[in-house]
Specification:
Main location: membrane
Keywords: Membrane, Transmembrane, Transmembrane helix
Number of domains: 2
Distance between the termini: 81 Å
Protein name: STAS domain-containing protein
Subcellular location: Membrane
Membrane topology: Multi-pass membrane protein
Length: 536
């Protein structure tokens, strides 16, 4: 009876997937719920901290963590992922809030969600496949460093004049000792028992020690109160006119892009850990719906959180139940358990996040830097550095552009030709082309030929080459025009299906009949010059 109820619940929250195809036994439910509780505990200080970064009230961050976390857990593209308020978005929001106020932020979050929904509808998430592996490694390493640096803020206190200063004396040593104890417990507990997730056990033990011995270290309640009521629906109080749109649209585009990039990269990372693929468009839709709802319920918006997702996966969370439980536990903290949560020492949560940093950083990439091509090593370091210095979206865009330019340069260097007399056309010369013909290699392609020295008939053999883009079409037309100006003829041979279609669509092939459907014959095609406006 119990198992059938779990199965029905699994199908309800994820039709056809049965909670990621994991058999929902009582033991599995226990693991998922405890994993969700661990994530919820770690979410509290991060949501509050990111709210402070964005310049809004703590509950604005907590509501975002609850709403975004719940909706994406139910409808997202990857079971096991955790979403909520993130620092990557908060640093963009701070200027908007400071200049126009929190209501404009809510309107921006709604528009951000609409843009993400459009990305999902038009299946733009699939373009995450274009992110090369070196960029992924740089993203993971950079984000691990960012997560680690963010924890250093917990080692600051407010002095008598209201300024933040670094801890000193017994408080600092107590904080460091508790962080070290938390990390040691997370390493030790799995060797003793797996009944309770190691991070949750470490938080519980360290909290008990702090309360028992009254250790003077900062606690969650010292950051801000996490007590509140249910989020209430409200339309953002902003003028509905073009001026408002001109203010919020640029921010919405940036936030939507950062949110989707971080979410889709986290989706890939979690997929590698759980051996799951796909779901990019579904994740875009879930993130968009979550942010639209969040904006109408007073939340600051959010996206996938790699740190919390790693906590969930490492704690055993594999299904949507863990993410749903994390969101519901967080709501319970806000409504009922704020006093209990506020006594948890920040040192315990910092220790958990430091272990996440250690587990997230791709340590093998250090050795890879000496083994992979220098260009790939440069991309890894570049993306890592830009992620730390700027933000994730900028880092990924820069990394993809650099990787693409390196690939284009290497591919362009491959273009060359073998010259020989024709075996089928008496007196003709054949250029057997090697390498792709595209914008990067078009100049090199033009330099391969000797129009003044060549015979009256020249054959370009594309058996080992491909015509890729408009620059390639223009290059073919230009070289044909040079030979034509000298009264000589250029023919194309062994075009692949895609090359044939590209050239024929452009109107460059002079074909009397389409009688070579299988391309089994060495059919020669003349080139019609002047089609693309090149030299005649």
């Amino acid at each position: 009876m119990f198992r059938s109820t779990l199965t029905a619940f699994a199908r309800a929250v994820n039709p056809g997937e049965a909670l990621n195809s994991v058999t929902m036994t009582p033991d599995r439910v226990r693991i998922e719920l405890l994993s969700g509780l661990t994530v919820a505990l770690a979410l509290v200080p991060e949501a509050v901290a990111f709210a402070f970064v964005a310049g809004v009230e703590p509950l604005v961050g907590l509501y975002a963590a609850f709403i975004v976390g719940l909706i994406t857990a139910v409808f997202g593209g990857r079971p096991g992922m955790i979403s909520g308020a993130t620092g990557a978005l908060a640093v963009v929001m701070v200027a908007l809030v400071a200049e126009h106020g929190v209501q404009y932020l809510f309107a921006t979050v709604v528009l951000m969600g609409i843009l993400q929904l459009l990305a999902g509808i038009f299946r733009l998430g699939k373009f995450i496949r274009m992110v090369p592996q070196p960029v992924m490694l740089g993203f993971v390493n950079g984000l691990a460093i960012v997560i680690g640096l963010a924890q250093l803020e917990q080692f600051k206190v407010t002095d008598a004049s209201g300024h933040e200063v670094w801890m000193t004396g017994p408080m600092l040593w107590g904080m460091l000792a508790l962080v070290a104890a938390t990390m040691a417990l997370i390493w030790l507990v799995p060797k003793l028992t797996r009944l309770v997730p190691a991070p949750l056990a470490a938080i519980g033990i360290v909290t008990a020690l702090v309360i028992l011995f009254d250790i003077p270290v900062p606690r969650v309640g010292d950051m801000a109160s996490v007590s509140g009521g249910l989020p209430e629906f409200a339309i953002p109080m902003v003028p509905l006119n073009l001026e408002t749109l001109s203010i919020i649209f640029p921010y919405a585009v940036i936030l939507a892009a950062i949110g989707l990039i971080e979410s889709l990269l986290t989706l890939n990372l979690v997929g590698e850990l759980t051996n799951k693929r796909g779901g990019a468009s579904q994740e875009c839709l879930a993130q968009g719906a979550a942010n639209v709802v969040t904006g109408f319920f007073g939340g600051m918006g959010g996206c996938a959180m790699i740190g919390q997702s790693m906590i969930n996966v490492k704690s055993g969370g594999r299904t949507r139940l863990a993410g749903i439980a994390a969101a519901l536990f967080l709501l319970c903290f806000i409504l009922f358990a704020a006093p209990a949560i506020e006594i948890i020492p920040l040192a315990a949560l910092v220790g958990v996040m430091f272990m996440v940093v250690i587990g997230t950083f791709a340590w093998n990439s250090i050795a890879l830097l000496r083994r992979v091509p220098r260009s790939d090593a440069f991309v890894i370091l570049l993306v890592t550095g830009v992620t730390v210095a700027e933000d994730l979206a900028v880092a990924v865009v820069v990394g993809v552009i650099v990787a693409a330019l390196v690939y284009a340069w290497n591919a362009a260097a491959r273009i060359h030709a073998v010259e020989r007399p024709s075996a089928t056309e008496t007196g003709a010369k054949v250029y057997e082309l090697e390498g792709p013909l595209f914008f990067g290699s078009a100049t090199g392609f033009m330099e391969l030929f000797h129009p003044e020295e060549d015979p009256d008939t020249v054959i370009l053999d594309f058996a080992n080459s491909r015509v890729v883009d408009a620059s390639a079409l223009q290059a073919i037309e230009d070289i044909a025009a040079k030979y034509e100006a000298l009264g000589k003829r250029v023919m194309l041979r062994h075009l692949s299906r895609d090359c044939h279609a590209l050239l024929h669509h452009a109107g460059q092939l002079m074909v009397d009949s389409e009688d070579d459907p299988k391309y089994s014959l060495a059919v020669d095609y003349d080139v019609r010059s002047g089609v693309l406006g090149g030299a005649a």
